[in-house]
Amino acid sequence: MKRTLKIVSVVWLLGLALSVMPDHSVNAQGTEKKDAKSEEEHIYFKGKEVDKRPVVKRKPEPEYTDEARLHRIEGSVVLRCVFAATGEVKNVHVVSGLPYGLTESAIAAGKRIKFQPAVKDGKPVSYWMELVYNFRI
Fold first, then answer.
1. Residue boundaries of the structural domains of the chain
2. DSSP-based helix, strand, coil % in the chain, nearest 5
3. Residue pLDDT, tens place only, 47-76
4. What is the CATH superfamily name and number for domain 40-135?
């Protein structure tokens, strides 16, 4: 029984380790070759690292929830996210939030932003951006 438990544990740990390893392939020379597209997706620029920053075309306002209005909650939600080269807002992280659904409302609004991606060397690139949504009654 103990031996079976050890084997199951080792197999489980091995599966776990393989699932978190990066996806690489091997070329004809037997050396590792990373997928260039997935490599580019994880490169994020900020500040003056780009030739042209993202241009926001439409920034929808978040909804003020009834519960937050009832409790008279005011303040700011600060989000850090990636304005991806594909034109999508991704990897949203809450820097500071508010209760009663206001943080979730700000995240939903942030994901609906329409923008022109940042440009570096003539190609669209992903760019870290900080968004601030102010809630005032």
1. 40-135
2. 30, 35, 35
3. 889 999 999 999 999 999 999 999 999 999
4. TonB (3.30.2420.10)
β-pair partners for 116: 55
Q: Which amino acid is at 64?
A: Y
Q: How far apart are CA 84 and CA 125, in angstroms?
A: 7
Written as six digits, the tokens of 46 are 């900020």
| Below-70 pLDDT ranges, the chain | 1-42
C-alpha pair distances (Å), 14 with each of 1, 17, 135: 20, 5, 48
Residue 61 CB partners (closer than 8 Å, separation 6+): 109, 133
- Chain centroid offset of residue 113 CA: 14
Question: Which amino acid is located at 18 in the chain?
Answer: L
Give one DSSP letter per residue of 20-41, joined into a string.
HS--EEE-TTS-EEE-HHHHHH
CB 33 within 8 A of CB 25: yes
- pTM reported for the whole predicted model: 0.69
